């Protein structure tokens, strides 16, 4: 099972007027703790969290991802008690950036959509649907603000430009598709690039050659304020007890590596789980934050060295994963957990 709940999402004032957020309701800081240990599938995760939102309410707008070896679901909670979730088709990708993303909801297709009890009646009772036809969750509950155009939609635009370079779109378009099918199969390296991207090969790259206005026009995906980027991988070609890998990047995904952690572990390396509040180069967060700050502030001098460093670590970690899986043959239960925990800690020291 995989669950990610780190994305803030914002409903509009019309919908929040009739279903305000609940001050002491659920928020992203507690969702994983009260949901992930108790669910058996991605679909079950949506159902379980939905029941908790009905009972306790939501303290903020949040978008939550659930994944298992068969399905991926994306859930958007935008008011105190209402939400919609959509299954991402197996051959497609989705990009979301701090605003409501789900579009037309098919209430006759329970295989691909789930929703809060009474949401249609709520919308009808308060005359919230602005469209003559259809039921577009983004149109009804979402925002179309100046901040969206410079902070959010441009990030979706760049991600889709990377995966579908043949499609011409406007970075300020508030109705970019939520789901697309990429021109090619998506690799982990592709995802790492997008998560650390800053509008490369466009006038909007803050490290590029555009005008000063262009370089500061849009918020990039990779940002020095990003404290945690992660890729949650569930492999279908190995046994379930070694299929889950969390690729974790701290300190800024543009300049620092994604480190693999097998999910079947009992502990993390001390450099990750015992971070000092003051500078300590032996702590992973301080080490990688320092690296990112150094490269960003001296970009022309260090960027090529940084690219080479990341490529070398990527090669190392790809090989390590296959080596660890091969060497774990015959291990099960506690023995396997102990082995994977030990190998995770070795991976942490590779920098």
UniProtKB/TrEMBL annotation:
Class of the enzyme per the UniProt entry, highest EC level: hydrolase
EC number(s) per entry: 3.4.-.-
One Pfam family matching this protein: Peptidase_C69
GO biological process: one example: proteolysis
Assigned keywords, A-Z: Dipeptidase, Hydrolase, Protease
Catalytic activity: an L-aminoacyl-L-amino acid + H2O = 2 an L-alpha-amino acid
Family annotation (InterPro entries): C69_dipept_A-like, Peptidase_C69
PANTHER family reported for this sequence: LD30995P (PTHR12994:SF17), SECERNIN (PTHR12994)
Protein name: Dipeptidase
Organism: Lactobacillus iners LactinV 01V1-a
Taxonomic lineage of the native organism: Bacteria, Bacillati, Bacillota, Bacilli, Lactobacillales
């Amino acid at each position: 099972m995989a669950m990610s709940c780190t994305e803030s999402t914002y409903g509009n004032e019309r919908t929040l007027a009739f279903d305000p957020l609940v001050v002491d309701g659920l928020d992203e800081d507690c969702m994983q703790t009260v949901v992930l240990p108790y669910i058996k599938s991605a679909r079950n995760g949506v159902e379980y969290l939905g029941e908790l939102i009905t009972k306790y309410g939501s303290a903020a707008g949040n978008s939550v991802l659930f994944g298992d070896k068969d399905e991926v679901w994306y859930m958007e909670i935008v008011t105190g008690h209402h939400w919609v979730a959509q299954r991402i088709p197996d051959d497609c990708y989705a990009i979301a950036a701090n605003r409501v993303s789900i579009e037309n909801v098919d209430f006759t297709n329970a295989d691909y959509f789930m929703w809060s009890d009474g949401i249609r009646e709520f919308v009808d009772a308060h005359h919230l649907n602005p469209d003559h036809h259809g039921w577009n969750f983004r149109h009804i509950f979402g925002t179309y603000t100046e901040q969206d155009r410079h902070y959010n939609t441009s990030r979706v635009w760049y991600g889709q430009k990377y995966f579908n370079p043949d499609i011409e779109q406007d970075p300020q378009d508030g109705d970019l598709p939520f789901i697309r099918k990429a021109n090619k199969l998506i690799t982990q390296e592709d995802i790492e690039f997008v998560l650390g991207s800053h509008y490369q090969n466009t006038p909007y790259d803050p490290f590029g050659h555009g005008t000063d206005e262009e370089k500061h026009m849009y918020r990039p995906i990779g940002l020095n304020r990003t404290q945690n980027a992660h890729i949650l991988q569930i492999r279908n070609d190995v046994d379930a007890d070694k299929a889950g890998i969390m690729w974790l990047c701290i300190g800024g995904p543009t300049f620092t590596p994604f480190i693999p952690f097998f999910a079947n572990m009992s502990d993390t390396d001390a450099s990750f789980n015992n971070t000092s509040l003051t500078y300590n180069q032996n702590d992973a967060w301080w080490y990688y934050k320092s690296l990112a700050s150094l490269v960003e502030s001296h970009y022309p001098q260090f960027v090529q060295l940084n690219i080479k460093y990341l490529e070398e670590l990527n090669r190392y970690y790809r090989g390590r994963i296959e080596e660890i899986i091969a060497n774990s043959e015959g291990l099960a239960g506690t023995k396997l957990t102990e082995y994977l925990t030990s190998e995770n800690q070795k991976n942490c020291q590779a920098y």
